[in-house]
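Encode chain A's predicted structure.
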Amino acid sequence: MVNIVLGLLGLGLVVFFHELGHFIMARLAGVEVEEFSLGWGPKLAGFKYGNTIYRISAFPIGGFCRMKGEDSYRKAMEQGLDEFPKEPGSYFAAKPLKRIMIALAGPLMNVVFAIIVFSAVFAIGYSVQSWGNRIVLASEFSGENYPADVAGLKSGDAIVSINGDSVSSFAEIQEAFALSAGRPMELGIDRTGNRLDLRVVPSMDKESGAGKVGVYAWIDTRIDDLSPAGPARLAGLQAGDVLLSANDFDFSHSAALYDYLSRERPERVRVVYQRGESIGEAPLILVYEPDGSTDLGVLWSRITLEIKATGPVDALARGWSETVKTIGATFRGIGSLFMGVNVLRAVSGPARITWMVGQIAADGFSAGLASGITVSFNFLAVLSIGLFAMNLLPIPILDGGWIVLFIIEAVRRKAAKVKTVLRYQTIGLVAIAALFLMTTVGDILFFSGR
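Encoded structure for chain A:
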């Protein structure tokens, strides 16, 4: 329940900033705003200042900005008019350029929100736990050929740079590949002390639309922590132990260990480990899932990256850079939906987004107040960019659809007839309804674990 509340509040904050953009630009453009609300539903409190009613509503899920003349659509239909009524100070009385600016202001405010939040996150600083930059080829276990194999990568290689930018963790590597499906990437490789330059082109994952090259993190089998009643602790293993073999099968990284266990599925495993200068053995009793996976009850040692701007200017520069990068990734993601990606899995609906916001916030706060704030707001910034991109799509009803309509009006120097707008909006309603249905089905499949 707490997760849902956190999710709704977070999503509502992003939507509120969107509506705030429309409100500010409407006032600057001379369009009267009749009502501006924080939240939806019954009015809890409010006051009138000038011609605008400012209110707080019962449900803190976003808000709304109702401009004078927005109901001209209904009036024109009821009265059988060919054009929208243009009362002084109303939305449709404004010049097309001003209406374009008002429609554009909502999405742009989402970008401003993202820049502010990303900059604040970099200014506060945060920690990321990840594996190092060494990799293991997935082809060693699947038998398939991946872009990593084509590029000439080998297990044990350390990726030290991507497109000229240095990297030190698998999290950075994974993010770079995920955002670059179909785009050549220049890799700097450290192979046993020798520097190599390779080029890889990530393929597109049809399930998610993300780029993939076919590599895992090279995870040393040094135990960092153990679950209280897991197989490893029950067998007498301790934090700091390094696992060396299982039933005489030698391995140097966790991927090889898990591959062996998945293939052979031994219930009793004799593990050889190193503890300090001594070598010991421990008997593990394992239980397997139908897919062959098993839980040893261990957390392998990771590295911790401290990410923090050097000052306000650096924080703002990083915030801007992160926003631009996220915008590019978002539009590429939208483009991938037309390239055979599984839309039901790749696109999240309101329920899944709310759950994700709440889950990420809850996980972050479980690690501490500072962690909760930075993790939550970082995700909200990404979500805000998603709202920016979605609203700029040239679909009727969305801001992008209205912008297209107003541009045509400005070029023709003539407003579209009410019936034309009605047909245009009907297309948009059908498109949005279809998208909502698709994402709802996707959310149901997600929550059912399919």
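The mean pLDDT is 83.
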